[in-house]
Amino acid sequence: MYTPYPTCTEIVAAIPEDVRADYILKASRKIDTLTYNRIVGRFEDLTDFQKDLIIEVNSRLAFWEYDNADVLSLPLTGYSINGVSAQFGNNYAVINGVAIPQSLYNLLQQTGLSCRSFRW
Questions:
Q1: Does the residue 119 lie in any domain?
Q2: Is residue 104 a contact partner of residue 97, using CB atoms and an 8 Å limit?
Q3: 6, HSE (Cβ side, Cα atoms, 13 Å)
Q4: In sequence order, which residues have a C-beta less than 8 Å from that of residue 47 and are 6 or more positions away?
Q5: Assigned domain for 44 exists
Q6: Domain range holding 45?
Q7: Is residue 114 part of a domain?
């Protein structure tokens, strides 16, 4: 059975308790995608620095997913009416099919786990 990565209680406390576990699981799965599944079942093998970053990214990504659920579920990326246009998604990047704020992806990159050439 899959175990989501730990989170920072202060950050995820803003997510309603009835959906919190779902958002944490979703964030953990996205981290797996972005790290090429390198830490599935190996979280304890990471350095303390890597663990701290994964916990922070997992917490902040879960909250970001919750906070932006309505925008992330839109099928449109923008629209234009009578010369006025609006774009959605300018605050995040899509990497390997995963929408994530660039600042969180930058933190994840510091672990070295999102680099394709990483070796244990």
A1: no
A2: no
A3: 12
A4: none
A5: yes
A6: 9-109
A7: no
Helix, strand, or coil here: 89?
coil
Amino acid, res. 61? L
- Burial classification of residue 70, based on how many CB atoms lie within 10 Å of its CB (0-12 exposed, 13-18 middle, 19 or more buried): exposed
**Do the strands 84-87 and 78-81 form a parallel or antiparallel pair, or are they unpaired?**
antiparallel
Picking from 89, 17, 12, 14, the residue whose alpha carbon sits closest to that of residue 55 is 12
Angle at 89 between CA 15 and CA 52, to 5 degrees: 50
Report if residue 96 sits inside a domain.
yes
Distance of alpha carbon 43 from alpha carbon 33, whole angstroms? 15
Q: What would the pLDDT profile of 34-69 be if each residue is shown by its tens digit? A: 999 999 999 999 999 999 999 999 999 999 999 988
**Domain tally, the chain:** 1
63-98 per-position pLDDT tens digit: 999 998 887 776 656 667 777 766 655 667 888 989
Apex 97 CA angle, 94 and 102, nearest 5? 25
Tokens standing for residue 3: 């175990």
